[in-house]
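Q: Given only this backbone (393 positions), what sequence would you predict?
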């Protein structure tokens, strides 16, 4: 590690210690990132209604406490599609992680492993699976996008299998890209890359964030018209891909993939049943963090229908709007086996690199334990509807 990289690492460690909530991390990330990169994390589609619904849904949850239960030390350990995890919070697949911080997706994977949980690498994270998988001391999961159709998906599956990826996540809510107007206002739109039309204003933003630019440069990351990192891994600035998978495609990938397969991007029991019929080991209730169909239901509101439909046959996970450990507890009480978070750990990564991701997981862990202690619940595996005093609607 160079002298400069070592100094940056020390600064990240100090910054991580000053984070006390996801909100703190968001505030620091906003200061440290160029506006175009921050808005890529923070923004959503159209009027951002669905993103706000995701967060607001948790305000309707009322816990039921059990008093005088004595001293308890809550256990957060559970399993997801056969994988034992110490914390029921997985790190969701996200695009362009490489641009948030030089630690990138490898740092995210190491942070997840250090806390006994799982990181899900996106095809468009900005780092190839062959680099990220060896960085993690626990098996990596991989989210496959395939704008080029099944031949591309097959090739990605082969690459993931070759480096020991444990589970495949197939996202099915991106037949087209959502209209993310914050990106458009910065002068970038699909395929969302730097070109002659937007290089000047984006360059000015980078100059206003010299620490971010210097930290990436000190560790070998270069921002250019093609983005950051090696070609062919989602490196165009704010790159995204439409990936119009069908149920037949999911069934094809199920036959090809030897390990667990999860289908992500479902909001109804009907679609969850189709996923299980296609061979899914698990399903993820998700609206892409509000980045696809604006006006879609909050994921917490959609969760009970999915749990009722397939909870006896497959593990149900959920993402969207989770900003507190209490939100995780609520989702588990409503039937989710675990949750995924995206923006919270990206804020932590931008604020303090790998240490920032670890800090976010530690904060959510502590908040979960405090919530469950106050509720009188000894283990996440004991959570169920009886711990909720009122409907969330």
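A: Predicted residues:
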């Amino acid at each position: 590690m160079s002298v400069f990289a070592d100094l940056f690492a020390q600064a990240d460690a100090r910054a991580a210690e000053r984070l006390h909530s996801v909100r703190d991390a968001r505030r620091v990330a906003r200061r440290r990132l160029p506006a175009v990169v921050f808005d890529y994390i923070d923004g959503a589609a159209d009027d951002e209604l669905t993103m706000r619904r995701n967060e607001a849904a948790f305000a309707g949850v009322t816990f039921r406490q059990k008093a005088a239960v004595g001293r308890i030390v809550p256990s957060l350990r559970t399993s997801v599609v056969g994988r034992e995890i110490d914390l029921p919070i997985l790190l969701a697949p996200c695009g362009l992680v490489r641009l948030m911080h030089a630690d990138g997706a490898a740092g995210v994977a190491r942070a997840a492993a250090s806390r006994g949980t799982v990181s899900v690498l996106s095809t468009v994270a900005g780092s190839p699976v062959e680099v990220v998988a060896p960085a993690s001391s626990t098996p990596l999961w991989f989210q496959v996008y395939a704008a080029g159709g099944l031949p591309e998906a097959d090739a990605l599956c082969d690459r993931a299998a070759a480096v020991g990826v444990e589970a495949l996540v197939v996202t099915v809510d991106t037949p087209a890209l959502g209209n993310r107007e914050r990106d458009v206002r910065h002068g970038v739109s699909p395929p969302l890359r730097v070109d002659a039309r937007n290089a000047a204003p984006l360059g000015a933003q980078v100059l206003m964030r010299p620490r971010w630019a210097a930290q990436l440069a000190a560790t070998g990351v270069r921002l250019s018209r093609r983005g950051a990192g090696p070609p062919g891994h989602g490196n165009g600035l704010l790159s995204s891909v439409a990936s119009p998978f069908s149920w037949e495609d999911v069934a094809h990938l199920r036959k090809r993939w030897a390990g667990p397969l999860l289908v992500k991007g479902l909001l109804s029991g009907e679609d969850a049943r189709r996923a299980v019929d296609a061979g899914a080991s698990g399903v993820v209730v998700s609206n892409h963090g509000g980045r696809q169909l604006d006006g879609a239901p909050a994921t917490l509101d959609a969760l009970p229908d999915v749990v009722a439909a397939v909870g006896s046959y497959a593990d149900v996970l959920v993402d969207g709007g989770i900003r507190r450990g209490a939100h995780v507890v609520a989702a588990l009480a409503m039937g989710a086996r675990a949750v995924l978070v995206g923006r919270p750990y990206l804020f932590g990564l931008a604020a303090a690199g790998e240490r920032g991701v670890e800090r976010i997981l530690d904060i959510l862990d502590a908040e979960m334990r405090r919530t469950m202690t106050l509720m009188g619940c000894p283990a996440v595996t004991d959570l169920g509807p009886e711990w909720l005093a009122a409907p969330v609607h």
